[in-house]
Specification:
heterodimer, A: alpha+beta, Aldehyde Oxidoreductase, domain 3, Aldehyde Oxidoreductase, domain 4, 3 domains, B: alpha+beta, Uridine Diphospho-n-acetylenolpyruvylglucosamine Reductase, domain 2, Uridine Diphospho-n-acetylenolpyruvylglucosamine Reductase, domain 3, Enolase-like, domain 1, 4-stranded antiparallel sheet, 14 strands, 27% strand
């Protein structure tokens, strides 16, 4: 049996559990817990005049009602601003329960605890909140021009403004270059809001035993939730445990923390000395969690006759919603990742983060990249159209060449470190894609179009992750890492890494993620980083274990460690299969025992013999047990890339848009499990199709979200997703031991740009807004 | 998303159900397939005091082909009706329409009669009943009445059903000889309520000339909008009828509204496109 599983299409270890209803999600926990529900603001902007809870007090089963006035100490303070930035001069975060003013529909105002959720909602319905309505600020441009303010002390509703400039080689600014360029174009692009929309919403369960607090949260970062809870509630860190159970998708929204509920539920559990649970429902998720994507972009570009971009200037208005808990990460990513696989002669990007009375904006899979790629790829298509050139030719003219890596884009990336691409081969990728979709043989006609989109994705951001690997005396391997899983397949790919590094069959390897009892130091799962950062940490931890195992086995086998190999869980002398010792025995020998409990452990007993009397049972510098812990802290992000193409058909009569073919070429360095990468891409493309053709957050002028349900928020069904043809390119990252790059967000990033290009090709009409619906295409056709 | 409190009744025979409904009056609500009602309850958009679950009343289950059409009991599920070859043989429009209703899992629970009573102007089945001139049988304690489709649908989500009444069955007339039918629509996603839809029934005479043509439009008015366009066809052979002109006449009768998914103008445009498609296909099936 081979244990060299790195790179193999191993079936997902977690699927039998998840597909047969054996998963344990947040709402499966604490069936007897008290239920929490919230009274949420029905208004986008209002002052709270009075809260009258008296009618609710008659509800049988009501346990407690809390408003902001009831919150003590740090719990009553605004939630943390997680990622401060010097340009975020007016960062604002919400209170866990609204204090005086509500700033979006859905903001929590009153917390209700009752015997069950039905009763809690009955009580909520009886609580009267009197509001003085304030003028709502809705829409990005309206917010810029409105005299009304989301936050009284934030003039112009501008939370942040950041300019990054990369001058030309001769030192000219992008503006100067564009002025003197042979060709220039200027245009505007609009991208709508969407949202992560995981199958499972958020949720928190808390239990307090008088000394220790155990919290389960449907989160993408249990370690950081733990630190936030300990700090807010004034508990010593060792007395707080946070566990992410099975999580039904995150896609970014669950990296935000601490959510109000992550503080309030544990706080009330301690106060009431009862087990408490809050499970978010779908409407709450739409109006109380987070959205993304909404931007208006103003683009100016100067280029030469060959389509080389000489200068690019992009001014972005970024809709940040009511609060900025996650800082300005999203617009920073848009403005840096916009550059894609291209060498842009000179570049100026300015973004303004604008407050509106809508749900806050935090990263959603792709995290600002779909907007940036939409901008750059629309620009490339417009240059090609202007010059009458093939769209792939213009792109190829601007590609960074394989010989130019590492390539410094001269900017600062979202991790505060330089935007330096580590590796890639964009010309080869384009060639593969053109082959896959049949670009050169495609014959366009009215109603049939082809589109292309290229992107580069910074993945695997730091600061670090860790891995712990333990071989127990039964020969099993227990791997843990602190970051969390939301269905990505970590149990499989991390086990593949461990199997390959340790020479142990994958069936004997188990993986635990997101449990602070098992691993306390971690950052979280986001930014396509888990495989890169935790994967490498686990590999390094395995190498420590392997080294120790070989040392112990060498002593037992009276061999040189350098001559030893491990395969199928057996340490043996290379070329002499007879001389071997199982890893299970090595694990026993690694831990000198006074007490034995079975025949195996008796081999490590103090009278078992073989011990040297010249050194202590645990030698200096050694530790008992066959285990290892290591960390991986990347120097910089690794830069994955991909190129997508699609053929679409538009109905001449109904203006319906159908994707006939969709092709992806993807490069995330060395593939741990191609099947899982392809699955990630498929899911990402599906979400991208949502953003391209279906999804928007339909706010009216009062700040009411008109489509806060899956009936009217049009997430595509399987029936709307085409078959996805995939090919891979592997340019290993030189930055990490395994040579891998991230893949989690890849699929979603260029889809809107690709579909826009294809529809434009089919219709001969500029497509500058996404998503595009049949109704909108109909009106574009009739010129309005 | 938990419903407000209600009393739950699960009668085992029709008499018992009608008694409970009579007593409940306007505070009662019938639960059959639950595909519309349960979300309304969970979102607290509806809060009836008494919920009468009719799923245990065996007499409401059957559907049967009668000499003049199809009678469908209150508990017949969409999927049962959709799959019945007997029904398809006498009234193919039902199957044509049901394939456009949501998704298989919803069709496995949702009921034909429940959809009629829900009276969503964008739904397919009310349109089919209206186009065919069918009727709904309403029972109350001590009486039964048949209400023709033309009088049954009174507004968006409003019907002639009165408090205390239970819709026990619906009757869909058989398709006449030399008659074809068609149902076409445009929805944002497969199975969604249509942005606009048109069903058509076309009859030809012995000389294969169009003797009768009727359409119904969904999603473009407060109730299913029916139109008899026979006159526009001028008793021509189907292949020479100016279907586009007929479609324009249909378009003019619609009153679409804009929502977040489509403008009124686009919906009106769709009616024209879909009317041509539905009439052409129905005429083809009639030959």
């Amino acid at each position: 049996m081979t244990t060299r599983l790195f790179g193999e299409r191993v079936q997902r270890k977690e699927d039998p559990r998840l597909l047969t209803g054996q998963g344990r999600f947040l709402d499966d926990l604490g069936p007897d817990a008290l239920a929490v529900a919230f009274v949420r603001s029905p208004h986008a902007h209002a002052r709270i005049l009075d809260i009258d809870v008296s009618a609710a007090l008659d509800v049988e089963g009501l346990v407690a009602v809390y408003t902001w006035e009831d919150l003590p100490g740090l719990v009553a303070e605004p939630l943390p601003l997680l990622i401060p930035h010097p340009a975020l001069t007016h960062g604002r975060t919400a209170y866990p329960l609204a204090r005086e003013v509500v700033r979006h529909v859905g903001e929590p105002v009153v917390m209700v605890v009752a015997e069950d959720r039905y009763l809690a909602e009955d009580a909520c319905a009886l609580i009267r909140v009197d509001y003085e309505l304030l003028k709502p600020v809705v829409g990005i441009e309206e917010a810029v021009h409105s005299a009304a303010l989301v936050h009284e002390d934030v003039p112009g509703n501008v939370g942040a403004r950041l300019v990054q400039e990369v001058p030309s080689r001769s030192g000219q600014s992008a503006r100067e270059v564009i002025e003197s360029a042979p060709h220039t174009l200027a245009f505007r692009l609009d991208i709508e809001r969407s949202a992560s929309s995981p199958l499972e919403g958020r949720g928190v369960h808390a239990r307090w035993d008088g000394t220790d607090l155990r919290v389960h949260s449907s989160t993408q970062t249990s370690t950081s939730v733990r630190m936030a809870i300990a700090a807010k509630l004034g508990l010593p860190l060792p007395h707080v445990e946070v566990i992410a159970p099975d999580v039904g998708g995150g896609f970014g929204v669950k990296i935000v923390h601490p959510w109000p509920e992550e503080i309030l539920v544990p706080w009330a559990a301690m106060l009431l000395d009862r087990e408490l649970k809050w499970t978010e429902d779908r409407r709450e998720h739409f109006i109380s969690s987070a959205h993304e994507r909404g931007q208006v972009q103003f683009v100016r570009v100067g280029f030469d006759d060959d389509g080389h971009v000489l200068g690019l200037e992009v001014t972005i208005l970024h809709d940040h919603g009511a609060y900025t808990p996650y800082g300005i990460i999203v617009p920073i990513i848009t403005s840096t990742q916009l550059l894609g696989p291209y060498k842009i002669g000179s570049y100026r990007v300015e973004f303004s983060s604008i407050y509106t009375n809508t749900v806050q904006v935090t990263p959603y899979r792709g995290a600002g990249r779909p907007q940036g790629v939409f901008c750059m790829e629309r620009t490339m298509d417009k240059i090609a159209a202007h010059l009458g050139k093939d769209r792939t030719e213009v792109r190829a003219a601007n590609f960074i060449q394989p010989s130019e890596f590492p390539y410094d884009q001269g900017m600062i990336f979202q991790d505060g470190r330089p935007l330096i691409y580590d590796s890639g081969d964009y010309p080869a990728m384009l060639a593969k894609l053109k082959e896959l979709i049949g670009w050169d043989s495609f014959v366009p006609r009215k109603g049939l179009g082809i589109g292309i989109g290229c992107y580069v994705e910074g993945t695997g951001v730091g600061p670090y992750e860790g891995g712990h690997v333990q071989v127990t005396s039964d020969g099993r391997v227990h791997v843990s890492t602190g970051l969390t899983s939301q269905g990505q397949g970590h149990e499989t790919v991390f086990a593949q890494i461990a199997a390959t590094e340790l020479g142990v069959p994958i069936e004997r390897i188990s993986v635990v993620t997101g449990d602070t009892r098992r691993f306390g130091y971690a950052v979280g799962t986001f930014a396509s980083r888990a495989a890169v950062v935790s994967g490498n940490a686990i590999a390094l931890a395995c190498r420590k274990v392997r080294e120790k195992a070989l040392r112990i086995a060498a002593e037992a086998l009276e061999a040189d460690p350098a001559d030893l190999e491990i395969s199928d869980g057996l340490v043996h002398v290379a070329g002499a299969p007879g001389a071997s010792i199982p890893l299970s025995t090595v694990a026993v020998l690694s831990n000198p025992l006074r007490y034995s409990f079975d025949a195996e452990t008796a081999r490590a007993g103090q009278f078992a013999g073989g011990a040297s009397f010249d050194r202590p049972p645990v030698a200096e510098g050694e530790e008992p047990g066959l285990e290892g812990r290591d960390y991986y802290s990347p120097l910089r992000s690794t830069f994955a890339a991909g190129m997508h193409a699609a053929i679409v058909e538009t109905d001449p009569d109904t203006a319906e848009i159908r994707i006939l073919r969709y092709a992806v070429v993807h490069d995330c360095g060395r593939l741990i499990n191609p099947m899982i990468v392809e699955g990630q891409i498929h899911g990402g493309v599906a979400q991208g199709v949502g953003g391209a053709l279906y999804e928007r957050m339909a706010y009216d002028s009062h700040g009411q979200l008109l489509n806060a349900s899956f009936m009217d928020f049009l997430m595509p069904y399987a029936t709307e997703i085409p078959r996805i043809e995939t090919d891979h390119l592997e340019t290993p990252s030189p930055l990490n031991p395994l040579g891998i790059k991230g893949a989690g967000e890849a699929g979603v990033i260029p889809v809107a740009a690709v579909i826009a290009g294809a529809v434009e090709d089919a219709e001969g009409l500029p497509i500058d807004r996404m998503p595009i619906s049949p109704s909108e295409l109909f009106h574009l056709r009739s010129g309005g | 998303m938990k419903p407000a409190p209600f009393d739950y009744y699960a009668p085992r025979d029709l008499g018992e159900a009608l008694d409970v409904l009579a007593e409940a009056g306007e505070h009662g609500k019938v639960l059959a397939g639950g595909q519309s009602l349960i979300p309304l309850l969970n979102m607290r958009l509806a809060a009836p005091e008494r919920l009468v679950d009719i799923n245990r009343i065996a007499s409401l289950e059957p559907f049967e082909v009668t000499p003049d059409g199809v009678r469908i009991g209150a508990l017949a599920r969409h999927s049962q009706v959709e799959r019945s070859e007997g029904i398809a043989a006498v009234q193919p429009l039902l199957r044509q329409a049901l394939r456009l209703v949501a998704h298989p899992v919803i069709r496995n629970r949702g009921t034909v009669v429940g959809s009629l009573v829900h009276a969503d102007p964008a739904a397919e089945l009310p349109a089919v009943l209206a186009l065919l001139g069918g009727s709904v049988r309403l029972a109350r304690a001590g009486g039964v009445r048949d209400v023709p489709a033309g009088e049954f649908f009174t507004g968006p989500l409003e019907s002639a059903l009165e408090p205390g009444e239970l819709a026990v069955s619906a009757h869909f007339p058989r398709l006449p000889e030399r008659t074809g039918s068609s149902f076409v629509e445009v929805a944002r996603r497969h199975g969604d309520y249509a942005l606009a839809g048109v069903a058509a029934v076309v009859t030809v005479d012995d000389d294969l000339r169009v003797s009768e043509a009727r359409v119904v439009c969904v999603g473009v008015g407060p109730v299913p909008l029916t139109a008899d366009v026979s006159g526009w066809c001028e008793r021509r052979p189907a292949s020479t009828v100016d279907w586009a002109a007929v479609a324009r006449a249909v378009q003019d009768r619609t009153e679409p509204e804009a929502d977040i998914h489509a403008t009124a103008e686009y919906r009106r445009h769709l009616v024209g496109v879909l009317a041509v498609r539905a009439l052409t296909e129905a005429a083809r099936h009639a030959l």
